[in-house]
Amino acid sequence: MFIIKSIETFGSYLMLMRRVFARPERWAVSLRQTLREIFQLGIDSIPIVLIISFFIGAVICIQMKLNIENAWMPKFVAGYATREILLLEFSSSIMCLILAGKVGSNITSEIGAMRVTQQIDALEIMGVNSANFLILPKVAALIFMIPILVIFSICAGIAGAYAIGFFTGIMSADDLTCGLQYDFQQWYIWCSIVKAIFFAYIITSVASFYGYTVEGGSIEVGKASTDSVVSCSVLILFADIVLTQLLMQ
Description:
Layout lengths: L1 H19 L6 H16 L3 H22 L9 H40 L2 H7 L4 H39 L4 H9 L4 H27 L5 H30 L2
Helix pairs in contact: 1-6, 2-6, 3-4, 3-6, 4-6, 4-7, 4-8, 4-9, 6-8, 8-9
């Protein structure tokens, strides 16, 4: 029964995505909607990304310094480990898990509220492809903003590591800089960006699907928001395994 329901849900998702990626009827309106979503979904998320990344970078630096400190190890190892964690996992995967809760629930609630108040039905009656009109700008906006948020997250995490080293004195700036530069692989930054783009699509498309297909009233909208966050988180973790295996070979 669960397998059959999952197949039916996946089929409904694919049918909705087919409508979403149809050619927009009015490009100017679609572009204007995309710009609005860039501000609402992307730019409004910058503060939380910077704050969380700053403190996580500081915590990672402390943990690495305290737990791997050894007379036989170079002093820059903590900085090296901090950089690798930020680049390979935190600034892409973990940050997108956080955004799935903030952005995903927002998308589901917005579209779900439009569904239960019959605004989507009104768009369909007027001959508008509501799926394309409502969902495509959100997908395009977050895919555009996610690489920027990843760069901001990396920079904020490194700034947090420098700040904790300066205020606590557990690590000198020279040692941290040496660790950040040691054996640097530029491809790791591109890996983070590529993974984050896939995660951005998962967040927007899955959250939009739950909101677009909700039935009932406000209680069902709240339940759909919770379900969308859970589904996005699981899919992001699964995609992270697959993409890491493909990109890091």
